[in-house]
Each structure stands twice: as structure tokens, then as C-alpha cells.
Amino acid sequence: MEVGVISAYSLKYELRTPKEVWDMIKEVTEGVIRKVDKGISEEEIDLVIVSNFSDRFGGLLHTAPLVISHLGLNSTKGFRVENACVSGGTALYLAWNFLKSGLVRNVLIVGFEKMSYLPSSMEINEVLMLAGHPDEVLVGSPFVSLYALIAAAYMSKYGVKEEDLALIAVKNHENGLRNPLAAMQKKISVEDVMKSPYISWPLKLYDSSLITDGAAALILSSEPRKYTDAPVMIRAVAMHHDHPGVFQRDDLTALRAVKKAGEEAFRSAGLTPKDIDVMEVHDAFTIAEIIVYEMLGLANRGRGVDLVRNGVTTFNGEIPVNPSGGLKSKGHPIGATGVGMVAEIYWQLRGEADQRQVPDAEVGLVENHGGTGATSVVAIFGR
Amino acid sequence: MEVGVISAYSLKYELRTPKEVWDMIKEVTEGVIRKVDKGISEEEIDLVIVSNFSDRFGGLLHTAPLVISHLGLNSTKGFRVENACVSGGTALYLAWNFLKSGLVRNVLIVGFEKMSYLPSSMEINEVLMLAGHPDEVLVGSPFVSLYALIAAAYMSKYGVKEEDLALIAVKNHENGLRNPLAAMQKKISVEDVMKSPYISWPLKLYDSSLITDGAAALILSSEPRKYTDAPVMIRAVAMHHDHPGVFQRDDLTALRAVKKAGEEAFRSAGLTPKDIDVMEVHDAFTIAEIIVYEMLGLANRGRGVDLVRNGVTTFNGEIPVNPSGGLKSKGHPIGATGVGMVAEIYWQLRGEADQRQVPDAEVGLVENHGGTGATSVVAIFGR
Questions:
Q1: Is A79 helix (H, G, I), strand (E, B) or coil?
Q2: CA distances in angstroms from B7 to B31, B38, B69, B245, B329, listed in the order given
Q3: What pLDDT score does B299 carry?
Q4: DSSP B114
Q5: Fewer CB atoms < 10 Å away: N or C end of chain A?
């Protein structure tokens, strides 16, 4: 059974949207249906999967039947899925399994998060932390501190400097300038990153992704050519897990779930990292993008930073990574994040990415992970 | 592909548990694995589905990888699902689809909710309300008010009295007396119900289910006889939806999602209501159980109350409903509720329900719904 993406839609991500969350959901639902090349009717949607992290970021629960009711009820089924920052990737994983098993023909995925629903970053962090291990929550470790442990261990082991991590931030902000959907369109230099305040040493403000409001939607089909002459086919979707607590791992510098998901996705698609033309990866913090390079087999351990330093993963490089601007510049509205990553690859492979179009992109990859890598989904797409 | 339940485990539900929520989850996870007749090893669990309503009822997110890590990591996959009070039923629906498609062989479902995590019933209600339509949330309608509208419309249309609704509460409290897992073991009379304070006319305190802490777990398998000589087979699982807002419906006295799910489940199993020996249904409020009788075809419209008045659905009747005590007496720890209902039917069909055993129970039914019926799952089980 071939499964393809037949439509994608996203709101411009914003640091603080004036929109009501239910209006955001309706807007992407209507948008993604309208964007299907040959049209689709609401009753053709068999399944709705909602991706949302916390009801504290929007004030909605039991959201799937709201969307289904808005589509006209029909006989569509639905539910919400949550796996922290990889809720969107998990929705993709479920949709893909449902479609390739023939259980359904068309799946609508709606991802959203309105993080500004809580008034302060302190309160926002208190919710985010709940995606960690209970013992980490107990001692009050926000994710920036956990990634800081990872970054410190990585820097110490491989002789990498803070300036090296900064290169990721500079690259992704540069990319975000070309993306009208990005929440922060601001060019920054290594010096800017180095001057930004420490949040948790060695990670600084500009090493960190954005607290963002956003929503995005996809339609996947097991009869993609019925709906468009240019579907983006799903070659593989793999999900793997690691121990949630950083303290539970024997190597702080690895993200094993990413490694296993990447290996399975490449094996399943019959491809290697060299076949990938464009990637969206989970740069929640700069260190994460570097380690993801290594876990996906783009670089040897400790050498990930070479890829950005040598221009391999910059916009004009061999494998541009995060042409959208990534979580760092486009933003990270949690439930929408993985959905928006797939949307970006859909546009890239259809040649619809305008100023940020990677030339001749035929094969794309999405890597979306949650917590400090307790869950990772890697998906490979082709024209 | 035949799919069966091969193990069930539940904590005693409590109005306020002293246990940490992570300890509750570990306890049911270990318990349900230990209870498999012929044993199962952790690495045989292919998929973990967590059912939990809100992180405000326990302070955990990204819970599936915690459970998977506790099982030893292996290659198990997992995610959390949420569909309000039918999160457990939705987990069953997903597990059943994954199993019958051959995608996985063994699925662990873990449902939990620690509602006492929030200090006041006012705050608890503010979270529960989010499962309604945003316009209902906007005007501040808690579920008891929405069900009160339904109850008032039903009473007016069919000439039913508050004393009639009370019969459901009396029956389910009577049943709960025999269930050591029930949160409230207290015999009540119609007079007690009538004397209890109005929460939202015509619904009183004793018409309402309990705010409860609890956790329950199931293991489902597509090779059930490998693990037990007495599996409880799943004959059908159906999920349907209705418009979430009570104001959106043309008949306040119907629960259309329940009706459609029931019809599909009976058709799919090749059975009729007369074939059912025991049922667990979603008595969030007394009026709900009466309407569910009618939606499932046990009684004509407006005549549901006759079933309890004439003893048909009481413990010694032809079709005992809620022998566990139901949400009314056993309790309603949201994410655990649907999981616990299936556990009760598993024990009933295996003849392991001790003092509350329904004699010769061979076919059982679970009806679990969410919101004011925006989502309903109906499942039928057989020996």
C-alpha cells in the first residue's frame, strides 16, 4: 500500500498570537482541505488525529470530535495523541500505520499549541518539565538544564566549544529569514549568540528554540494520486524510544532513540544518508541538531559540527538542514512542531518552498523527538 | 485475526490516594504482566498505549516512554491517547485495530488519573469542562449542568421523575458494596438521593459519579491462547462521534454516538442486546445510564427506567449493568475508567468476579463515552 501526503497547511508561527486556539484549529483544518489539488470532500476523511501537548497550552481537551463536528460529523473517527514534543511525529506514525494496513483511506492530522496561553515563561516551563522523568521533575530540572548536561558532556568529550554550537543558531536564523512562516525573522552572528545570556551553562538564550504559538495540518492518503498528481510519498516512518531520564543513560552524548529510528527508516526505505536532499530536524537546542547529525549517520561521533562549519548543512550545502529555520527560528509550538516539519518537506519536494526552495529536492527526511530524546520519529519522503 | 484480552489489573479506586502517580502506573504495569496465566516477558510487549486525560491530574506527560523504560526498553513503541472520559475506550479501539491488522502482537494499555492532584473540586471542574465545546467552556458550563439540561429535557419529554433517576444511583451503590475495588462502598436509598443537595437541577449529589484517583491496565494479544487457556475474546470494538456541544444537537435526549457505536458493535459481532449477559456502561450521571439503555436497544425511548424499576439491570436481573458499581460507586478516574470497565468484563467472563460474579456470564459489553457523548466506544467480548 503506497501512502502519500496530499496536502499541508500551516499558520505563521508567532511568539504570542492574538488568535483563539479553536480558531487556529479551524483555520488549518479548512486550509489543508482547500489546498488538495484535485479537491477532497469532508466525508472522505476517515480519521482525524490531533497532536497537542498540554491543555494548559490552549485550554482544549477532547479536540478530535470538535474537528470532526466541524467537518460535518459523517462517520469520521478521531482521537488526540501526545508524546511530548514528538506528538506530531507520533501522529504521523499512527496515520501511516492505519493507512498502510488499509484500515482507513484518508487521515487528517491537526497539530496545535498556544504556549502563550500561560502568562509567564516560568509557568510554561513548569508544564514542559512534565515531559521528563518524574525524578527530574522532582528536582526541578527544566529541559534547558538537561540539554545543558548533554552539551557539557559532549563539549568535554569531543573538544567542542560554545562558538561551535552557535553556528547552528546562526545557520537556522539565516534560514528563517527566507521563511514567511517563521516566528522570528532575525539574522544573528556567532558574536550575538556568545553575548546572549546563559540560561543554563553552556546553553545561552540563542542556543534555545522559541516558545511559540502555532498550528499546522496534513492530509495523508492511501490513494494519493486520486487527489493530486504531485503527492509526496512516505517511504518510511520509524519510532523508537530511550530511557526518559538523562541520569538513566550510559552515554550522555548520544540520542539512542534517534539513532535507532534513523537506522530503521533508512533500512526500510532502502536509502542511505547520502540520498537525502533536504532535512528538517529537531533543533530544540543547538546541541540537539549536532548530535542528530551524528545519530543519523551524516557525521562521525564528535564531528557533527564540521557539517555546519564546512557548509554541508547550510542552505546552499549538499544537505540543507532546517531550511524552514527550524525550531530555533521558525519556532516550536509543541503539538504543531512535527506536523509543520512534514509540511516543510512536502513543500520542498513539490518545489513550492519559494525563497527557501532547496533546488531539485527529491528525497527529504524529518527527525522529530521529545523530552531529551525519550521518543524519536524519523520519516523519509520521496517524490 | 482473533484478538483477546489476556490480563487485567486494577488498583482499588480511591477518593484521594496517598500514592504518587508514577508509583500507581508502575504498580498496574507490573501487576498486569504478573497476572498473565502462562506468563509474558516484557520484550513481548510490542506497543504501550497510555490513557490519561490531563497532566493536571497527575503531573505527568510523555508517559509512554516511562512505561517502556520500566519494561526494559527493548523495541516496544508507545504513545498516550486522549479522548476525554473515553480515553480508555479509545486506547482499546486503537489496540484492537493494531492487533487485528497484524502490526503488533501484544499491546499493554495503562490508564490512570489522579484527580486529587488538584486541591479543590472547583479547580478539578475547570479542567473537566475543557472536554466540552469551546462555547460551553466560555459560558462556564460544567458537565453536571450540561447533563442537567439533558435530564430536564428527558424528564419533560417522557414524564420521568427525579425519583426514577435515583433508582440508578441506588442500584450502582448496591453493586459497589460487593466490589473491593470501588471507591465508595455505601448503601443508599431513593430517599437519600432525593435528600442530597442539588448540584444543577434536576441532578443532585447522588446522581453524580465520583471524582476519583485510580489506575488500571490490560494486555491484549493476537495470540491469546499462547498466554492463557481462558482469554476473553474481543468480538467487536466500535467508535463513533456526535457534535460536542449540547446546543448543537437537535435532540437533547439522545446520545447519538452511543447509538451508532452500539449498532456497529452488535452488527459486527453478529449479536443483539438479548445476547449480552453483563454490561459496564458510562453512568457519569444517572440520566446517562438510562439513555444508554435506550441507545443500545435494551429499551424503547423513554422506557429505560423500567429496566431498573423492574429489576432487569439490577444485580440479579437478566442483564446486570454495572456490577462493579459503575462510575457512580466504583468511581471515575478518567483515564482509567474505560480500562477498568474492560477489566471488570474480563473478570466477569472468566468467572473471577468473586462476590459480584454474574452467574454464567459468557458475553459482555462495555460502553464508555466522553464529554456529553461526543465520543463513544462500544465493545463486545465473549469467552
A1: strand
A2: 9, 10, 21, 37, 24
A3: 98
A4: E
A5: N
Of B80, B239, B371, the CB nearest to A82: B80
**Could you tell me the fold of the domain covering B138-206+232-382?**
Peroxisomal Thiolase; Chain A, domain 1 (3.40.47)
Range(s) of chain B covered by CATH 3.40.47.10: 4-119+213-227, 138-206+232-382
Q: Span B4-119+213-227: which CATH code?
A: 3.40.47.10
Residue range B334-353, pLDDT digits in tens: 999 999 999 999 999 999 99
Q: What is the pLDDT of residue B31?
A: 98
What's the rounded Cα separation, in Å, for the pair A177 and B321? 62
Is there a contact between A54 and B55 if contact means CB atoms under 8 Å apart?
A: yes
Report the mean per-residue pLDDT for chain A: 97
Q: Do the Cβ atoms of B54 and A55 come within 8 Å?
A: yes
Taking the C-alpha atoms of residue B215 and residue B109, their distance in angstroms, rounded to an integer, is 11
Instruction: Count other Cβ atoms within 10 Å, centred on residue A126.
Output: 16
User: Between chains, do B77 and A239 touch, taking CB under 8 Å as contact?
Assistant: yes
Half-sphere exposure of B312 (CA within 13 A, CB side): 15
What is A1-383's CATH topology? Peroxisomal Thiolase; Chain A, domain 1 (3.40.47)
Distances (CA, A) of A201 to A145, A363, B185: 8, 37, 55
pLDDT the model gives residue B125: 93
What gap in Å lies between CA A312 and CA A298, rounded to an integer?
10
- State how far the Cα of A108 lies from the Cα of B23, in Å rounded to an integer: 36
pLDDT in tens, A128-161: 999 999 999 888 888 999 999 999 999 999 999 9
Where does B191-254 show beta strands of DSSP type E?
198-200, 203-204, 213-221, 232-241
Rounded to 5°, the CA angle B87-B93-B99 comes to 135
In this predicted structure, the answer to whether residue A1 has a pLDDT above a threshold of 90 is no
Q: Which three cell numbers stand for residue B195?
A: 435528600
**Amino acid letter, A111:** G
Q: Which one from B85, B173, B240, B282 is the annotated catalytic residue?
A: B85
pLDDT in tens, B189-205: 999 999 999 999 999 99
Number of A:B CB contacts under 8 A?
167
Element (H, E) at B268: helix B256-269
Mark whether A282 is an active-site residue: no
Task: Dig out the grid coordinates for B56 from the structure.
Answer: 493536571
Residues shown for chain A: 383
Residues on chain B touching A20 (C-beta within 8 angstroms)? 134
pLDDT, tens digit, 9 for 90 and up, residues A323-370:
999 999 999 999 999 999 999 999 999 999 999 999 999 999 999 999
Q: Which of A22, A23, A71, A83 to mutate to test the interface with B (most CBs of B within 10 A)?
A: A83
Q: Rounded to an integer, what distance in angstroms lies between the CA atom of residue A138 and that of residue A129?
A: 10
Q: What kind and span of H or E run contains A345?
A: helix A334-349
Known catalytic residue at B62? no
d(CA A372, CA B10) in angstroms, rounded, equals 31
pLDDT tens digits, one per residue of B28-72: 999 999 999 999 999 999 999 999 999 999 999 999 999 999 999
- Cα–Cα nearest to A329, from A160, A141, A192, A126: A192
pLDDT tens digits, one per residue of B163-173:
999 999 999 99
Q: Which 3 state secondary structure label does DSSP give B372?
A: coil
Please state, as a whole number, how many other Cβ atoms lie within 10 Å of the Cβ of residue A95.
27
Q: Which residue has the cell 443508599?
A: B188
Q: How many other β-carbons are positioned within 10 Å of the β-carbon of residue B169?
A: 29
Chain B residues whose beta carbon lies within 8 Å of the beta carbon of residue A242? 65, 69, 73
For testing contact with chain B, the best of A46, A79, A282 (most B CBs within 10 A):
A79
Look at B69 and A248 and tell me if their CB atoms are within 8 Å: yes
Asked if residue B56 lies in contact with residue B117, where contact means CB atoms within 8 angstroms, the answer is: yes
Question: Sorting pLDDT into bands at 50, 70 and 90, what band is B141?
Answer: confident
